Amino acid sequence: MKIGILGAGPIGTTISKHLYNVGHDVKIADVRSIDKLEGKDFKGSAVTFDEAIQNIDVLIISIPFNVVPTIKEKLSYLGENTIIIDTTNYYPFRDGNIQAIEEGKVESVWVSEQIGRPVIKAFNNLLAMTLQNITSTDNKKIAMAISGDNQNHKDTVKNMVNEIGIDVVDNGVISNSWRHQPGAPAYCTELDKDQLQRALQIAEKSNIPVNRDEIINHFRPEMQHEDIVSMNRKVYGAEAL
Predict the structure, then answer these.
(1) Are 76 and 141 within 8 A, CB to CB?
(2) How far is the C-alpha of 27 from the C-alpha of 46, rounded, in Å?
(3) Model's pTM, two decimal places?
(4) Which one of 21, 166, 236, 238 has the fewest beta carbons within 10 angstroms of its own beta carbon?
(5) Residue 36 phi/psi, 5° resolution?
(6) Is residue 45 a contact partner of residue 3, using CB atoms and an 8 Å limit?
(7) What gap in Å lies between CA 215 and CA 153, rounded to an integer?
(8) Is 53 left (phi over 0), alpha (psi -120 to 50) or beta?
């Protein structure tokens, strides 16, 4: 498939490598300028924003949450049948308080409203290091949650994710994607398919923003990847899964 990626942070660049390595035609853009891609570790073609959205089957949005509204106008030129994957996550300390989210609007529902297009939520509940290494610390196959309203689009995304060695749990419609937002048991806790299914089921919506904000109090700069996963499991309620 022809895939465009908006955003060249750790998630976007890691996804580019995996998809390129399994044979997809990948191009990647920084929403600010193509010059910002210089020195970045990715695979595929470095392109401008306008080039990234032309003649593609799938667009992957991997930019800071608060930047999403700024891309709406350009996305109006995107092909009508293009699948849009939303990898974004909302963090008030980084993105500022977004009132609609604070009042309970589901993150990817908000993203869809901002860009005026339906999205599939995917790649958001795995740490960049998890994506880089694919397998978890106990050597079980890592699983990813996806949500969306278009089943054909979800099936395409599922096949793409399976190709790069990750299992998929279909979490239902986009309004249900809060179950893998930051703060949920399914978020960045490195679970296999069975564990992830349980994590999605036990999520309590009212606890999620509380857990998301609490995690900042536990983070230390010297933490290793394993420490972060362990911390997430404890704070988000996934230890027993």
Answers:
(1) no
(2) 6
(3) 0.96
(4) 21
(5) -70, -10
(6) no
(7) 33
(8) alpha
Determine the Cα–Cα distance for residues 218 and 233; give it in Å rounded to an integer.
12
DSSP letter (8 states) at residue 32:
S
Beta bridge partners of 146: 170
25-29 sheet: strands from edge to edge: 45-46, 25-29, 2-6, 58-61, 83-86, 120-121
Containing H/E element for 58?
strand 58-61
230 φ/ψ sector (left φ>0, alpha ψ -120 to 50, else beta): alpha
| Other CB atoms within 10 A of residue 225 CB | 15
72 C-beta neighbours (distance < 10 Å), count: 13
Residue 81 CA to residue 68 CA, distance in Å, equals 20
Per-residue pLDDT of the chain (241 residues; tens, 9 = 90+): 999 999 999 999 999 999 999 999 999 999 999 999 999 999 999 999 999 999 999 999 999 999 999 999 999 889 889 999 999 999 999 999 999 999 999 999 999 999 999 999 999 999 999 999 875 445 678 999 999 999 999 999 999 999 999 999 999 999 999 999 999 999 999 999 999 999 999 999 999 999 999 999 999 999 999 999 999 999 999 998 8
- Nearest-CA neighbor of 145 among 190, 189, 180? 180
Chain centroid offset of residue 201 CA: 19
Sign of CA dihedral 55, 67, 235, 203: negative
Q: What is the dihedral angle through the alpha carbons of 39, 62, 227, 182, rounded to the nearest 10 degrees?
A: 160
As a whole number of angstroms, the distance between CA 95 and CA 109 comes to 17
